[in-house]
């Protein structure tokens, strides 16, 4: 999980089982677990946070609200079967805001 987090630059990864998103693991989740004494070689399930924020459709303004309120950097977009449809990252939101800001300044 730590390798995938480092590689994707979003500070977290989604956990998927049978094509269904079942949780999320963040850098903070791993750090908190290690500080509580969890062995670094423990199964990934030891680090998964199953209560996570997601959207049912891609909605930039709703995603922005979640990021502002919760300080998270990745929001999955899931269908009714909890299958991954899309992902909205903090980087995408910043890019979208920059584009919107440039348009409003013209």
Summarize the entry for a quick read:
With 106 residues, this protein is α+β, with helices and mostly antiparallel strands. It is built from four helices and four strands; from the N terminus they run αββααββα.
Helix content: 25-40%
The biggest sheet, with number of strands, parallel, antiparallel or mixed sense and barrel status, is:
2 strands, antiparallel
Strand arrangement, largest sheet? 1-2
Radius of gyration, CA atoms, in whole angstroms:
15 Å
Helices and strands: which structural class? alpha+beta
Alpha-carbon distance between the termini? 43 Å
Quantity of strands, as a count:
4
Structural shape:
globular
Taken in chain order, the helices and strands follow as: HEEHHEEH
Mean pLDDT over the full residue set? 85
């Amino acid at each position: 999980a730590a390798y995938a987090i480092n590689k994707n630059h979003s500070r977290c990864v989604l956990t998927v089982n049978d094509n269904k998103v079942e949780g999320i693991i963040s850098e903070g989740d791993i750090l908190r677990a290690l500080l509580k004494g969890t062995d670094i070689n423990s199964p990934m399930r030891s680090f998964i946070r199953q209560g996570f924020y997601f959207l049912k459709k891609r909605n930039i303004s709703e995603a922005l609200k979640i990021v502002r309120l919760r300080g998270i950097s990745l929001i999955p977009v899931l269908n009714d079967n909890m299958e991954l449809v899309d992902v909205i990252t903090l980087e995408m939101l910043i890019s979208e805001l920059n584009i919107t800001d440039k348009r409003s300044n013209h």
